[in-house]
């Protein structure tokens, strides 16, 4: 059960308004705030910022 509390599954949604999402895990101790990663959005055809959604 400790695995789910420390490293929850988070959904990263594209800021390009395409609706594309990535699913990943994050460490709450290292990243207590919302996660932001720059990843490839195949719908937009370019790299965009993906933000954690709750």
From TrEMBL:
Taxonomy, superkingdom: Bacteria
Listed transmembrane segments: none
Entry keyword annotation includes Ribosomal protein: yes
One annotated Gene Ontology cellular component of this protein: ribosome
KW Transport (keyword) present: no
Keywords recorded for this protein, A-Z: Ribonucleoprotein, Ribosomal protein
Pfam family, one: Ribosomal_L33
Protein family per UniProt: Belongs to the bacterial ribosomal protein bL33 family.
HAMAP family the UniProt entry points to: Ribosomal_bL33 (MF_00294)
Protein name per UniProt: Large ribosomal subunit protein bL33
Organism the protein comes from: Streptomyces endophytica
Gene designation per UniProt: rpmG
